[in-house]
Specification:
InterPro entries: ASHA1/2-like_C, START-like_dom_sf. By secondary structure, this protein is α+β, with helices and mostly antiparallel strands. Helices cover 28% and strands 42% of the residues. It has a single domain, classed as START domain (Alpha-D-Glucose-1,6-Bisphosphate, Chain A, domain 4), CATH 3.30.530.20. The chain has four helices and eight strands. The chain has an eight-stranded antiparallel β-sheet with strand order 1-2-8-7-6-5-4-3. It is globular, with a radius of gyration of 15 Å.
């Protein structure tokens, strides 16, 4: 097992963009599934002690995921993700916006671009997040790096567990 996996998190405030690169000690197919299947996303997609709950997900171009991150006291923070481009096991893009429980969006949102590659059983995921407004970027960064780092740790643990099952 490789314990020296890359994790890089950079912010370009002028470009209103966040760049994240993370390696996982798992095969490409498993990592792709973890990012694109609701039943797996719900197992890692929120920083503890919060949890993720997908109301519905239709992973196809033009499809959407509507989900919530739920705090231990039951407070729900909803978001809508629209899949704008999908190249299986290589790339997908989506537009992400927070919303209320009825899918009424809070604008502005952000464009997410995920790229996947595998070498020597290590899968690298590059994520680029472009924010429509500088204010949204500033708001996002308040807790985003800590929270996203925690969710990726959840994913690493899930992938280890799933890899041992197969």
């Amino acid at each position: 097992m490789n314990n020296d996996l890359l994790f890089d998190f950079n912010v370009d405030k002028a470009a209103k963009t966040v760049y994240i690169t993370r390696e996982f000690n798992a095969g490409l197919s498993l990592v792709w599934d973890a990012f694109t299947k609701a039943e797996l996303l719900d197992q890692w997609g929120a920083p503890a002690p919060m949890r993720a709950k997908t109301k519905y997900m239709d992973f196809k171009e033009g499809g959407r995921r509507f989900y919530a991150m739920i705090s231990p006291d039951g407070v729900e923070r909803w978001a809508v993700q629209e899949f704008t481009s999908i190249t299986p096991k290589t790339n997908f893009k989506m537009y992400n916006a927070f919303s209320d429980k009825d899918e009424n969006r809070e604008l502005p949102g952000s464009d997410w671009d995920y790229n996947f590659s595998e070498q020597d059983s290590i899968t690298k995921v590059n994520i680029t997040i472009y924010n429509e407004s500088f204010e949204r970027l500033e708001k996002l960064l308040e807790g985003f790096k800590i929270g996203f780092t925690m969710t990726l740790k959840n994913l690493e643990e899930l992938l280890t567990s799933l890899s041992q099952e197969s």
